[in-house]
Amino acid sequence: MEQKDDIYYIEKVKAGQTNYFSYIVERYQDIVFSIAMKVLKNREDAEEMAQESFIKAYKSLHTFKGTAKFSTWLYRITYNNCISEVRKRKMHFASTDDVQIADEAEEMNLDGIPEENRAQAIKAAMDKLPEDEYTLILLYYFEEQSIEEISKVTKLSESNTKVKLFRARKKLYTILNELMKDELYTIL
């Protein structure tokens, strides 16, 4: 159903009704910003890159063929823009404090983590992941992208995507365990 909604708005924009692009921006702005934030590690740069990604998507909309999900195409633009910017600036990555995880984080079933602390624990653990692993987790669990779609975004083979996602999930679990141990020590 989302695919059909995206196509509807895309066709309207292609037909000259450019105001419909605002629906696309509204739908994807949080995830595009999250990807940019994780790669660039700077809120201002991430906001600028998210905006540039939408501009590039708008200008290139005529090249979107609809063979893949629009979200996959847009995330690929965002990821490529961010990686290009990092290479151009040769930035050193710092830690993030402002990455926003969608509300879906609270719906994950994480036994042992009090419900009211789940989103905070997930965000803290994800902040400790390298940007490539963060992106994989974000796309798979929060954006519900398939392995095939993620492999298109990251330009990894599907089997490599599965392996890296497995390792990222394992690392996230380890980080969550460590965070929970630290939390227990502070409570006691």
From TrEMBL:
Coiled-coil annotated residue ranges, if any: none
GO molecular function, one term: DNA binding
Pfam families, A to Z: Sigma70_r2 (PF04542), Sigma70_r4_2 (PF08281)
Cited InterPro entries: RNA_pol_sigma-70-like (IPR039425), RNA_pol_sigma-70_dom (IPR014284), RNA_pol_sigma70_r2 (IPR007627), RNA_pol_sigma70_r4_t2 (IPR013249), RNA_pol_sigma_r2 (IPR013325), RNA_pol_sigma_r3/r4-like (IPR013324), WH-like_DNA-bd_sf (IPR036388)
Record keywords, A-Z: Sigma factor, Transcription, Transcription regulation
Domain RNA polymerase sigma-70 region: from-to ranges: 24-90
Source domain of life: Bacteria
Signal peptide from the UniProt entry: none
GO biological processes: DNA-templated transcription initiation
Domain RNA polymerase sigma factor 70 region 4 type: 120-172
Family annotation (PANTHER family): RNA POLYMERASE ECF-TYPE SIGMA FACTO (PTHR43133), RNA POLYMERASE ECF-TYPE SIGMA FACTOR (PTHR43133:SF45)
Annotated family: Belongs to the sigma-70 factor family. ECF subfamily.
Protein name: RNA polymerase
Organism field: Draconibacterium sediminis
